[in-house]
Amino acid sequence: xxxxxxxxxxxxxxxxxxxxxxxxxxxxxxxxxxxxxxxxxxxxxxxxxxxxxxxxxxxxxxxxxxxxxxxxxxxxxxxxxxxxxxxxxxxxxxxxxxxxxxxxxxxxxxxxxxxxxxxxxxxxxxxxxxxxxxxxxxxxxxxxxxxxxxxxxxxxxxxxxxxxxxxxxxxxxxxxxxxxxxxxxxxxxxxxxxxxxxxxxxxxxxxxxxxxxxxxxxxxxxxxxxxxxxxxxxxxxxxxxxxxxxxxxxxxxxxxxxxxxxxxxxxxxx
Length: 270
What we know:
The chain has helices at 3-18, 23-26, 29-44, 59-67, 72-90, 93-96, 111-137, 139-148, 153-183, 192-219, 236-254, 257-269, and strands spanning 100-104, 107-110. It is mainly α. The protein has two domains: 3-137 and 235-269, no CATH class; 153-226, no CATH class. It has a two-stranded antiparallel ribbon with strand order 1-2.
């Protein structure tokens, strides 16, 4: 299997993970959506120099991965895959913010490096939580939860189609890549003009295949409604999950637990 084909299979692996039967999988998607949304809001609301105060928030994605029996290595690889975006956002901070913010022994650490570390940590927290939510719930159940929370149906259906057509785009890309490899006699390079032509053909073929997929969905009774196999409802477990984590997020947001713990340990050692 080609590298692109392996990536396509890897994308579908999320749906396999979402078919699990742990208590977190069985929770109503609305509870997980709202809790994760509050988690992301709490994380991004910190100042640019906050690092230690963000550390307790690691508990939430770690809990989701552990309790949902998600493969930690797989999620970590997905986070690393998109990490260059976060690196590019903050890599220039040390050059523009050179003032010493704190000292570690005789070493002075500038505010740019601290803000860069804060960006990376917030990226790790938010992306890992979002990936865990997708792996525990699945795109269909997430869209169903968004509908029940009052999201516009047009937006939700477009989100559902975007996920479905991503597979069509990847499949057509793999077919064209394999065809070119068979006809290029082992040549790896590609002229820019040829690349543009292939890109145009790929767009046209993907649009045609997407149209066929849509017509097939209509022929099978698709009417814009999302149907999932599991029946969901808000119950005691959902309320307990939401309010317990909301209380913890509020505690982590307004109380710097690592600093308090460090001060307590320092006081004991004196």
